[in-house]
Amino acid sequence: MSFLEEILASTRVRIDELEKLVTEDALEQRIASLPGPRGFTSALKGPGTAVIAELKRESPSAGPLNPDMNAADMARLFAEGGAAAISVLTEPDHFKGSREDLEAATTAGLPVLRKDFILDELQVLESRAWGADAVLLIVRCVGDRLDILLGATHALGMDALVEVFNERDLAIAVGAGARVIGVNHRDLETFEVDPDRTAKLAPQIPDDVLLVGLSGVKEPSDVAALRAAGAGAVLVGEALVTAEDPATKLRQLLGGTIRSDPSRRIAKQT
Fold first, then answer.
1. Do strands 85-89 and 50-55 pair parallel, antiparallel, or not at all (unpaired)?
2. How far is CA 233 from the centre of its chain?
3. 24-60 CB burial, b ≥16 within 10 A, e <16
């Protein structure tokens, strides 16, 4: 069993447990008591390259990163540093995330993305019920159910960051009408990182789709390279949660960036 298969198997167990613990009606009642979602996608659009700052306690590839962090304090530092939105890893078995981290992050006042292995509509409801404004949908994990999960997400007024890795994933995402597409530089099967993957796929992404660069962003030069490839936003996790001063590190990453013009993406190769 590959690592990804292992994660998906444990995710299905968690979905089964969730179905036993809560009903859709209960989640919908909780959602009705909440203020409306903060616009995740709109927060990423502006005069500079947006950073989605990620709360990440541990990584299967890097091990413990900041396991004892105070999620609310870290989210506040992200906001002070100029993050446009916050991503929260909630997967508990391999990333040591939690629903509590998600709730804590909402106190910073920025749109919050739940980053997990979403496979079922009940997880989308759960995400909104606990304060998420957007969810991550990984094409490699959801396959042809992407359109169903996108529909469930948009029905709740939420946004979706649709993660792709290769041309096949991208075709599915575009066909399903994804509005925000993130290119993961890390292969979830092997954990190898290809920092040029965004540049390779960017020419095939429609100009009206917001492109986000994921994984391996550590220095301002990484942000600049992704901006040059056409990315309007980047997601940064490890470099921030391991920094001595996350707010200062974030400002360094943001320094001097200018919003990409999608029309300036690298030309399609013939």
1. parallel
2. 11
3. eeebeebbeeeeebbbbbebbeeebbbbbbbbbbbbe
Task: Quote the pLDDT of residue 216.
Answer: 81
**Alpha carbon of 153 to those of 53, 137, 161, 202: distances in Å?**
21, 10, 10, 25
In angstroms, what CA-CA distances link 4 with 8, 9, 42, 170, 183?
6, 9, 31, 19, 17
Q: Is the pLDDT at 265 greater than 60, yes or no?
A: no
Percent share of the chain, pLDDT over 90: 80
**Cβ–Cβ under 8 Å, residues 178 and 162:** yes
**Cβ neighbours of 256 (radius 10 Å):** 10
CA atoms within 13 A on the CB side of 49: 32
Give the burial class of 187: count Cβ atoms within 10 A of its Cβ; 0-12 exposed, 13-18 middle, 19 or more buried.
middle
**Which residue carries 């100029």 as its tokens?**
82
Distance CA 265, CA 84 (A): 22
For the cut 70, the answer to whether the pLDDT of residue 90 exceeds it is yes
At residue 138, φ and ψ (nearest 5 deg) are -100, 115
pLDDT in tens, 109-165: 999 999 999 999 999 999 999 999 999 999 999 998 999 999 999 999 999 999 999
CATH class (in words) of the domain with range 3-263: alpha beta
Work out the pLDDT band at 189, boundaries 50, 70, 90: confident
Split at pLDDT 50, 70, 90, the class of 1 is low
Identify which of 191, 204, 194 has the alpha carbon closest to the alpha carbon of residue 225: 194
Domain boundaries, the chain: 3-263
d(CA 15, CA 121): 10
The pLDDT confidence band at residue 242, using thresholds 50, 70 and 90, is: very high
Judged by DSSP in three states, 105 sits in helix
